[in-house]
Write a structure and sequence with these properties.
heterodimer; A: about 150 residues; mainly alpha; 6 helices; about 0% strand; B: about 170 residues; alpha/beta; six-stranded mixed beta sheet
Chain lengths: ~150, ~170
Amino acid sequence: MTPFESEIKSSGPLSLGLLAYFRERQRNRVHELVLLEFIKSGMTKTQLAHRMGRSLSRVTKWLAAPGNWELDTVSDFLLAIGSAEIEPSLSYPFERAKRNYDQPEWLLSRPSPKQEDARPDPSELGLITPERPKKSSPSHPDLADQLRAA
Amino acid sequence: MSIRDEVNRCIGTGELLVLRPALPSTPANRTIVVSAELHAQLIGPWGSAKDTIRWNRVRADLDWFIGGHLIVVSDDGYMKSLEPESEGIWEIACRNPKPSIRVFGGFTETNVFSALTWRYRKPLGAKGSPEWAEAIRECKAEWKKHFLVYPPHTGLDIKEYIQDDAIRI
């Protein structure tokens, strides 16, 4: 169960993180709704700006990203684009079926056990690699050598 | 060898992680792999209420991409390619609330974005500033560190980056 799911299932107060996530998601959803309607309409941005009585630069910026739109702005957009209005309905994302496809098949999903030497041999990639400096022998005798000598 | 092998090697070592949408019902129609550092920022825990709000909104924005929703590619849109476009470095803009954040990365192939670094927008200043150049340099360095000789995927048409539901405004 994801942290958001656990939170929804509990009866405690909703966290700031969950609220923020859904505010952003909602903002993106409303923006997408307006943008799809605009694309479907075949209108130009100039025509839309004229219809809304706004500057072209303002309308372009509004269409590009979900800013702090008020419901009034959304209403203006939908009316000007397609003589439309929002028909509110609700969806329940935590009750929908969970995805059973997470990523492309070629992609590893989790880190594998320690792979220090997983980086490919650069010669395979056509790179010239400088020779590693050979380890110099220690200046002091190894402990095992000392024991052997004793 | 291919860039896919490099992506998998980095996932194997834990340098990169596949970002899973926070909602189990969000479909994975596109893919974002993120650096371990960025993943930690996205998952938390966070030290303040401000960061909690800020990073959960970034997470929602990245999940939006993964979910296969409509993506606007433009200066003021969801994402854009940074100059020079031939180098394939992109920014994803997470504008709300302030301070606005920019996530930097590139496409390893169509529909697969690798998000490697991030910066607050304000200190970057105007486009073309030394700070912007440094942010792009940093992302390019991270790219080379992870993907070696394989450059970011580039193309002429937006569909070569995002197969469906992407527009330029």
